[in-house]
């Protein structure tokens, strides 16, 4: 039977009937156990000593109304520290997929009868629906185990929001924004560590959407190569490189070393002014901002109506794990600098590697007291933001 692993349909590759719970002799022998099946009423004390030798555990779900298997998974992960493959096996329904991940399951293996009623596509959609429509962070693997009923109650409370896009998945929000702001919407891409996510979504919905990239003349060569790779691989047909005005550069930064003495002035001439000139006629912008990034964004809506500019934030409710899962699911190429320790990537002179335990944006303008380039629009005006953004590692 197929298995669903973080909304990817695949085969688990293990035989689930190698060892039955009643076969205590096999559990007491000092040999590795490829797979073990547990009934929902299994006594975990009988297998605790053998857990380090068990590669996979399949917990049976005889009916979707029987939730004892969720409790077993939570106890195995939290109390006993089991680290092997954990599979929910049986008569589950898509509504329970996100909750299974929270309780510690790695995959869900669906009974044939249920697959006839709920297709793999329905299961794939369920993870996104629960994360974005029910409760922020609900579908995070091994996250806080909030019951489905509590999640639905939370959604009823959240429906009081003024966000007209509330409850939409990321692609649905992007699609609606494009329809609503036809010809008046753009995406500014930094070609950073997670930029491929939105670019991929755009390629599937409207590959000719205007996408602006600030070609400052100071980027890593890897960033420029990454830009070309994504344009070619995704088939983006309206990718626009925005460059500084040569006359302004000659006047303000004739030696090309302005970043060493006045980084704010360098950003102003290479980023703020060129972007303002290029997109000043648009009324709406798509951003990659997410609620988890800063305290100020914790309640950020998907559809944000500001003075002078509408911001559409399709990924507002996503976690860093959601970003990673999307990149892996669609086999998107990572930024080549990410693997080298650059977790937030800007211009080469002002970007350094990030050490273990540091804030991912610690490598931007290190030791300069500067945290933003100044291209964020606040209340209809292009203003610098003083607070440093923070990100989960993914």
Summarize this structure as a short list of keywords or feature phrases.
394 residues; alpha/beta; Rossmann fold; six-stranded mixed beta sheet; 14 strands; disordered N terminus; disordered C terminus
Word description of this protein:
The protein has 394 residues and is α/β, with parallel strands linked by helices. It folds into two domains: 3-158, Rossmann fold, CATH 3.40.50; 170-383, Rossmann fold, CATH 3.40.50. Helices cover 33% and strands 13% of the residues. The chain has 13 helices and 14 strands. The chain has helices at residues 24-28, 68-79, 97-102, 112-117, 120-134, 148-158, 170-180, 195-205, 221-234, 246-252, 258-261, 263-279, 320-329; strands at 3-5, 8-10, 36-38, 56-61, 85-90, 107-110, 185-188, 211-214, 239-242, 284-286, 303-305, 310-312, 376-378, 381-383. The strands form three sheets. Strands 2-1-6-5-4-3 form a six-stranded mixed β-sheet. Strands 9-8-7-10-12-11 form a six-stranded mixed β-sheet. The chain is elongated, with a radius of gyration of 24 Å. It is found in: Cytoplasm. [4Fe-4S] cluster binds at residues 266-267, 347, 350. Keywords: Cytoplasm, Iron, Iron-sulfur, Metal-binding, Oxidoreductase.
